[in-house]
Predict the structure of Putative perosamine synthetase.
Amino acid sequence: MARIFLSPPNIGKNEELYVKKVFESNYIAPLGEYVNKFEDSIKAYCKVDDALALNAGTAALHLALRVLGIKDGDVVLASSFTFAASVNPILYERCEPVFIDCDESWNLSPELLKKAILTAPKKPKALIVTHLYGQAAKMDEIMEICDSENIAVIEDAAEALGGWYKTKALGTIGKMGALSFNGNKIITTSGGGMLIGQKELVEKARYYSTQAREPLLHYEHKDFGYNYRLSNVLGAIGVGQMEVLEQRVARKREIFELYKLNLANLDLEFMPEVEESRGNRWLTTLLFKQKNAHLKVIDALAKQDIESRPLWKPMHLQPLFKNALAVVDGTSEEYFERGICLPSGSDLKDEEIDKVCKIVKENI
Ligand SMILES: *Cc1c(COP(=O)(O)O)cnc(C)c1O
């Protein structure tokens, strides 16, 4: 049997055809028709005003901070239980992060959010809230708290395309949202990202994403920008991947259910789904009862050429952020010490799930 990866790319029928069309047109870059089509398909799918295709999800988060005017010593609240890319842009803008722990939803705790606002050294300007592993955070509570405090909410929906909260796509509830099309995400352009939100803000980000060029014949600059846009070749891959997104979500959710069924008799806690939401189940994640039980399982799977991972190590436990303020109650730390991400590729076969489950059962 071939190696089983955690979440490998899964290319559909049309991506190669669209890339070919890009080559036939000669306009592999810069930008072009397929980047526009990709943005349009995200706008239509997420029911969002505007979308900006970028070369990374990290770039989307960075531009969100930039267009919201957050910089130089401003306090930015953030989910601690996330990937570093979620919060690195806080450092790019020389801001001060304040990390907030998760609750039983595995996502940002609204209670600790309130506490963080009171504890922060000054009034926070923004919150970066992650929808972890594609599952929605408690957005009603979070929006209510942040709206009343005038804190801009940026949703890190990098893992969560295809996920919903009530009637809204994840990433479209706060002021701005970031999506990622990195190689391991639910759909991929090999690398890429998208910033979504209101037209006015996204337009401003569009300006910054291409070196902040003034609309003149010659190159005129009043501000500094970045080279953050996506190439037309990758836009073509994105258009093809959007055609299969719903299928990918359906299979990811099915994989989660298959694991749950297969491992039903064990004392495990799977990542929950908050009320009135539909996550994309990007990765199937669960907690073992015993601390460090996941390490033995990861090791046993690796011996059979199967990739699995611990959960994200919380940001407040990272050496990089040892001096950052953190409003935590031990929840994410505890999850990190006994949680696992199981292979969840959308092309994973049922037999492969059985094989993984057998190894899990033999090793706990
Ligand atoms: C993947 C990811 C990002 C960054 O996306 P890139 O496209 O890799 O830059 C940000 N936040 C989270 C939670 C992610 O998983």
Notes: The chain has a mean pLDDT of 97.
